[in-house]
Amino acid sequence: xxxxxxxxxxxxxxxxxxxxxxxxxxxxxxxxxxxxxxxxxxxxxxxxxxxxxxxxxxxxxxxxxxxxxxxxxxxxxxxxxxxxxxxxxxxxxxxxxxxxxxxxxxxxxxxxxxxxxxxxxxxxxxxxxxxxxxxxxxxxxxxxxxxxxxxxxxxxxxxxxxxxxxxxxxxxxxxxxxxxxxxxxxxxxxxxxxxxxxxxxxxxxxxxxxxxxxxxxxxxxxxxxxxxxxxxxxxxxxxxxxxxxxxxxxxxxxxxxxxxxxxxxxxxxxxxxxxxxxxxxxxxxxxxxxxxxxxxxxxxxxxxxxxxxxxxxxxxxxxxxxxxxxxxxxxxxxxxxxxxxxxxxxxxxxxxxxxxxxxxxxxxxxxxxxxxxxxxxxxxxxxxxxxxxxxxxxxxxxxxxxxxxxxxxxxxxxxxxxxxxxxxxxxxxxxxxxxxxxxxxxxxxxxxxxxxxxxxxxxxxxxxxxxxxxx
Length: 471
Description:
Layout: H1 2-20, H2 27-32, H3 39-50, H4 53-65, H5 72-95, H6 101-108, H7 111-143, H8 150-199, H9 202-211, H10 223-237, H11 244-251, H12 256-273, H13 275-282, H14 284-287, H15 289-295, H16 303-311, H17 314-352, H18 359-386, H19 391-398, H20 400-405, H21 407-415, H22 421-441, H23 449-470
């Protein structure tokens, strides 16, 4: 019966996506909904897109393995990104009326910078989308009690998400995501109330966390620990700002103010509601400490699901898994569309048709890219799943490349008049040269390699821009 309800939910989501696809008449509709979304829907789309598998499964798993400080990248860095984007970047980018964020790099610098930034943005999505698809595989595996293997579940989940995304683009993403946001908020709130009752209330759970030193947040007072802490915050806080999905949601708003406050309120809502799955999962230490003890070594991402399945009645399981699927699918669809749009507009369009392409031909190209990217990310998910990479780690790793390559040229291009293409070349080149070898060669470095790449990219932008003006 549980599987039947979940299947019904999937059918409803697909139906909403296909109905929304009727509004797609051209590329602008497909990529930005014709810039027509009101503030409430922008808030919902921003919140639900970022409230993904890592929020419900990955963050609680990391919290079990470390403490509150281990979550500095997500949710704290992720919320910081959305708030900063809304307050600092959204208004300027909205006024430029761009189709993709990659277009900014071409207009501000040149085609080469556009290609390099677009490649970095696209690569960064592999980890994020893979985390969502991997989580879908886990959910189908748990629901079927092992009848559906995780790899098969990954294939099923990727197919469902790709179906309505390729048909309706941003309209399908926006409408399904808004519906899924309602399911997320209502469903997880109900589950939290139920679990709190089983644990004896909120206070005993908090007391248990305090006793286990889980609320320790700040790093040790030494340079290495502080730099590692700051880098973890910057990786998502800054590295996810030059992302197509963040830009796309703001750019789909019907006004500048909706773009600004949709991002800000979406970020605040994300930070607030990220505490709910964290509370639900940690309540398991009081409800079933033996189960938690068994799963602490390698299966922490599954503790929350095990708690729900072993201790809650069927109706509550239906509510939870409906919410969980809403969480994952809302993020997966948005993060599948964003890199595909970037590849089509900023990498393939100029190469396939240098002299220009009709709007309908470009729309067909974009849909084929979505299918192609879905295939690639499914393969990547299967590979990561075989390597037993945690969901939280997949998301954390996703933004290193954009922090090193795309963030500094975006900020300098928007706010520093002296920034030029030579500075952008130097920023990207030095950033990659400082980061990539360390990322490949070092195992468990005390200071994350992307810190050196980020610092080098700043030096490259400043030195390159000033030197080229003097030369």
